[in-house]
Amino acid sequence: MKTHYHKNFYNLEIPYKDGMLLYNIINKNFVFLNKEYSDFYNDKQKWEMEQYSNMLKEFEDAGFILKDSIDEKGLYLKNFYLSRWYSKKLLFTIVPTTSCNFRCPYCFEQGIKFKTMQDDVKEKAKSLIEERIKTFKPESVGVSFYGGEPLLEKDKIIDFGRFFKRLSMLHGFSYNADIVTNGYLLTDKVALSLYNDAGIKSAQITVDGPESIHDARRFLAGGGKTFKRIITNIRDILTLSIDFVIRVRVNVDKTNINYMDELLKALSTLPQRDKKLEVYFSPVTGEADKTNAFMSDILFSQEEFGRVYVHKILPLLKKYGFDFERYPEIAYVFCGGITPYHILIDSDGTIKKCYDLVGRENESVGDVENYREDDKRVLFWELFDPLSEECKNCKYLPVCGGGCPYKKMKEGKNVCEMWRYVLKDLLVKIYELKEEDNEKG
Fold this sequence. Notes:
By secondary structure, the protein is an alpha/beta fold. It folds into two domains: 5-70, no CATH class; 75-441, Aldolase class I (TIM Barrel, Alpha-Beta Barrel). 39% of the residues lie in helices and 17% in strands. It is built from 16 helices and 14 strands. The strands form three sheets. It has a nine-stranded mixed beta sheet. It has a three-stranded antiparallel beta sheet with strand order 2-3-4. Helix 5 (119-136) runs parallel beside helix 6. The longest helix is centred in the last third of the chain and has 22 residues, at 419-440. It is globular, with a radius of gyration of 24 Å.
C-alpha cells in the first residue's frame, strides 16, 4: 500500500528571498529552504517519486512532513489534557506577606490589605502541604515564594524551606525553590542563606530601566531610590561561588521602552552574566480595579508588545551579548490554576488559584484549615475548559495554551498571546541577526 504524506499542521512557512524559512512550533526545528528544497516541499507529487526519497526522509526526520496516519493536532490535544490531569510534579506558591517596601504605581496589588502570615497559619499550611504530598506522591516538588515582598519575612521563608527539605528526604522527591522579589533586601548574605538553608536556587528581580527611569517607577514606600542597591545586590550575588541564578525581569510599557538600550548596556557589565544572569521582558498588564486609571493609556496590547519585542528588544539583546535566539516554549498546560497540582497559600491562610488574586479575600477557593478537592470553587477552576474550538484548530496553541484562563473567565473569550501576531516576524529577525554574525565570522 502506497504511503501518503501531509505537511505538519504546526509548520510556519515564511517566503524569504528565493526560498523559504520553515519552522515547526512543536519541535522548534528551523531551517532555510533554498529554491530546490522549497519547490520540493510545495510539490506533493514529488514526495512520492523515488528520485526524491532522500529529500523526503530529511523532511520526515525534521518533522516537517508526516505520514497521513499521524494526527499531530490530536496528539497535542491528548497531551494537553493528560498533562492537566496527570503530573508527577506538585507545585506550591507561598505568600509569607502581602506587605511591600515598594510602591510601584502599576502593581496589581494596589488596594489590598497588607497581611503577614501568622505562626498558627504557617503551621496549618505545613500540615496541608504534607497532606498534599502524601496524597499525590510526587517525584518532584517546586516551590515559589511570592508577595508582596517575601523577604520582609525572610525567617518564615527559611523555615518553610527547611520544612520542604525534610519532607524531600522523608518522602523521596526532588525539591527546587525560587523567589520573586524586588531585590532590595536580597544581599549576597541573604542569598547565601536562602540557598543553604531553604534550597532556593534562583530569584526573579524586576529592573525597569536605567537608574533614573527605574527609580521613578519602582521606589520605596517612603519615596527612596532603589536602583543602585538592587544592581549592587545582583553584582554581589553573581560573584558568589554558588549556583544561584538571577532572572532580571523588565516590565515594559510605552513610557520606558525607549530606555532599554541604556539598561542592557548597564546589565552587560555584570559578572558571569552568561552563566548565572538571565534577562527577559514582559509587558505591564493591568485592569481598572487593580491599577491607576492613567495606566490604560500607556500599556501595550499583546500585538503591540510583540512588535516592540521583535524590532527593538531583540536587536538590543544581540548588541549587548545577551541570548536573543529564544523561541517560544511549548507547553501543554500554561496555568497551574486549572490543574489539581498547584496550590497558592496566601498570607492569611486562604488558598488561591491565580497569582493575580493574591490578597483578594473574595477570590479564595478554601483555606489551609479546610481545603477540599470537592469544593465547588476548586472544581470551577479545575473543570474549566480553557480552549475554544478556534483554539483547538489554531497552530499557535502549543505556545499559547488558549491564553490566560482567568481572563477568559472574566471576559468570556480567549485572549491570544503575542505569538499569534508576531512569531513569523520573530523568526525572520532571529534568522537575520544570526546571518549577520555568520557574515562577520
